# Entry
Amino acid sequence: MLEPPIRTAMSIDANSIEESSEALRSVADDVCEICDGARFVRTTTDVREPSFGKPVLCRCALEEAPEEREQRLLRYSRLGPLSRMTFEVIDCSGRAEESNEREHYAEAVAIAEQYAEKPEGWLLLTGPHGRGKTHLAAAIANRAIQRGAPALFFPVADLLDALRAGYAEGSEEGYDRILEQLRRAPLLILDDLDAYAKTAWASEKFLQVIAYRFDALLPTVFTNLSLSLETEARLTSRLTDPSVTQQIELGTEAKPRFFNVGAMGHEQLTSFALDRFDPAGHGLRGDPRRNLESAFHLAKQWSSAPDGWLVYLGKNGCGKTHLAAGIAAERLKEGDAVAFANVPDLLDELRATFSPNADERFDYRFGRLLEVEVLVLDDLGAHQNSAWAEEKLYQLLNHRHLRRLATIVTTNCELKEMQPRIASRLADLQTSTVYQITAPDYRTGAAG
# Structure
C-alpha cells in the first residue's frame, strides 16, 4: 500500500538532483515543507513495495502552473537551443535517399517516441554523422519536459569539461554535486558518446556515472557513432546488455574502399601499378637482377591471392614502396578495401586526433586500420621511437597478426633493430613471408 508523501521518506534520487542544480528549486520564496524544495518525494518506506526508492512529484510540483514548471525544467535540462528539437518537427522520412532507409528511420522515430512517453532502461542511438541522432535524443528530453518530468541533456565532451571545472576553487557547481546530478538524474541523455575517453581520468569518471546508472536501472539515452574495438570494455558490456539496452541504428556509414595516410593517394597508387615496375631495374645483371625479379614475382603472386603478411626489407630506393603500392592497386581493382599508410605520417595523424579540433577521433581512425581488408604500412622504422608510438604500432600489428589479416610492410631496418615483440610478428613463418631486396636504388641504379 503506497504511503502519502512524507519529508523523512524523501527520494535520495530527487534530493541529489536538487542539491546539484538550482534549476530544480522553486521560484517562490517559500520552500515546500514536504519536499524541502526538491519537488520529488519517495512514496513508501516499505522496501517490499515496487515503488520503493522511486521519485514521484510532490504536491507543490503538482500545483505549480504548467508554464512555470516547463520553464524551470528547461533550465534544468541544459538543452539550450536544442529545446526546439521536438518530435513535432522531425521529418520521419529522414535524410537517406534509399526508401528502405527512410522506412527504417521512421521506425526509429516511433521507437524513440514510445521510449520518451515511458522511459525505462537504456536507449542507444548509433549511426553516422548527420543521421539525426542528436535530434532524436533532444526530442526525448523535450517530450519528458512536456509531460512535466525532468530530463538532463549533456554532450559528453561538455560533461567532462564540467567535471574538470568542478575542481576549480570558487566553482559555482562543485565536482561532487555535478557527479551526483549525473548519477541520479531521473532521465539522462548523453550525446556523442565517442568523446568520452580522451584521458584515463575522463574515462574513469564517466564510467563511474555509467556503472551507477546501470546498477540502478535509471533511464539513460546515449548517442554514438559506433561501438569500436577501442571502446572501453566496461562500457561496451553494459551498452550491449540486451536486458537493459535497446539499440536503434540510424543507417550505416558508406566507407570508402581506399583511404591513405601520407602522400600515396589514389592517383599516385595507380601510377605505381605492378605492370609499370621493371624487374630489370637500371640494367641490372646477375644476383641483383635475380633478386629484384624474385621480389616482383612474389608481389604478383601475393596480389592475386593474398595470404597472411608480406614483408619487404631493403635500403631506401630499392623498389619496396613501388611493389607494395602495386599490390594495393591490384587488390583495389579486385574489390578489396585498402589502406596505404606511411608510418611516420600515420603516427602524426593519430596524435592529432586527440586535439579538441580534430576532424576524426582516434578510435575511429585506428579502428579502420585494425579491420581494413588490406593494409600497407610503408616505411616502418622511419618514425621517431617513443613509448606511445611503439605501443600503438604493436596494438595494430598484434591485432592483424592474430587474425591473419592481409598486411604488407616495407622497412629499411633489419628485424633485429626493431622492438622484439614487433619483430617477432613480422618474422612469424606461419603468418609472414619476409623478403630481403638487395638490389641497388631502383630509381637511379646507384648502390646504397
Q: What stands out?
A: The chain has 16 helices and 13 strands. The first helix runs from residue 12 to 20.
